[in-house]
């Protein structure tokens, strides 16, 4: 039961850390996301210090915010060498959840619920990861605008399946190993408890012979 709880915690943690969309400086994408919040991460593997990162969100055409082009709302902060990753959750009203940082300007969602964002600047070695998002391709045919969700997520889904299978195999190995250790421990306990009786039998035989 204990191993099963560990496995569930591992799978949940893993799923929260698998990025479906990874962006670098200059990348602009339109994405959809599952659930009520978009999970955005800015990892800092190079431990850069006091360098600004800026993510721009599509806003009203006349919106002006720092460090982003006109028509975008701004989310910016600084990297710290002792902070391995900055984490943000953005709800479907364009607000940050449980964060002291603020988005300058109003985030405007598209009519289909998708969101357009652009990575304006990043410290060296950093990237922007969207954990529960999928890219959207907007195509225009015969005067109509059609939104199509791309399918790189299939590859990610396959990778997730492989990781889950590997996790199950690891869990099975842990259970088998624990069972073997328990059996060995039980046998040792039984053999130890039997030793005093064996000594008494040997002593009685020895006395009888003499």
| Oligomeric state | single chain
Reported for the largest beta sheet, the result is: 6 strands, antiparallel
Please trace the helix and strand order, writing H or E for each element. Answer: HEEEEEEEEEEH
Let me know the number of strands.
10
Low-confidence stretches: 7-17, 153-161
Report the end-to-end length measured between terminal Cα atoms.
56 Å
The portion of residues assigned to helices is 25-40%
Mean pLDDT: 79
Secondary structure category: alpha+beta
Our count of helices gives 2
Spatial sequence of strands, sheet with the most strands: 5-4-7-2-9-10
Calculate Rg over CA atoms.
29 Å
Shape: elongated
Whole-number total of structural domains: 2
**Strand content of the residues, in percent?**
25-35%
Account of the protein in words:
The structure is a single chain. With 210 residues, the protein is an alpha+beta fold. The protein folds into 2 domains: 21-150; 152-210. The protein is 35% helix and 30% strand. The chain has helices at residues 2-17, 153-209, and strands spanning 21-23, 28-33, 37-43, 52-58, 72-78, 85-91, 115-121, 128-130, 133-141, 144-149. The chain has a 6-stranded antiparallel β-sheet, with no helix packed on it. A 4-stranded antiparallel β-sheet has the order 1-8-3-6, with no helix packed on it. β9 (133-141) and β10 form a beta hairpin. The longest helix has 57 residues, at 153-209. The radius of gyration is 29 Å and the shape is elongated. It starts with a helix and ends with a helix. The model is unreliable at 7-17 and 153-161 (pLDDT under 50).
